[in-house]
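Long-time lurker, first post. I've been practising inverse folding by hand and with some scripts of my own, and I keep getting stuck on stretches where the structure tokens seem ambiguous. Below is the full token string for one chain I'm working on. Before anyone asks, I'm not after the true native sequence, just a reasonable design that respects the backbone. If someone could post their per-position residues I'd love to compare against what I wrote down in my notebook.
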């Protein structure tokens, strides 16, 4: 017999699979809830914006931007200034 002949009784070596680490699950952002004080301040601010002539579409967009910044710790005034400058 030569080296290239395989006997049928010999088990074939199983292919070795490389251990590929599973991708880490994406971490959800920890949501920071607004305090009641922030909510009332935002409501007052949005009332002002409505009286100023903002339409519904602009109001919703402005409110979402304000909420995002206020959750990060900005005050109503600072958040509004930040939005209007951008």
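-- Answer (accepted) --
I ran through it position by position. Result:
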């Amino acid at each position: 017999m030569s080296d290239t002949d395989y006997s049928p009784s010999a088990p074939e070596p199983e292919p070795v699979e490389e251990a590929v680490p599973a991708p880490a699950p994406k971490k959800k952002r920890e949501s920071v809830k607004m305090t009641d004080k922030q909510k009332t301040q935002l409501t007052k601010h949005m009332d002002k914006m409505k009286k100023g002539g903002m339409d519904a579409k602009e109001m919703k967009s402005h409110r979402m931007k304000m909420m995002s910044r206020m959750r990060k710790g900005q005050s109503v005034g600072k958040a509004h200034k930040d939005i209007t400058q951008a």
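A couple of notes from the structure itself: The mean pLDDT is 84. Residues 41 and 76 are 7 Å apart (CA to CA). Happy to go over any region you disagree with.
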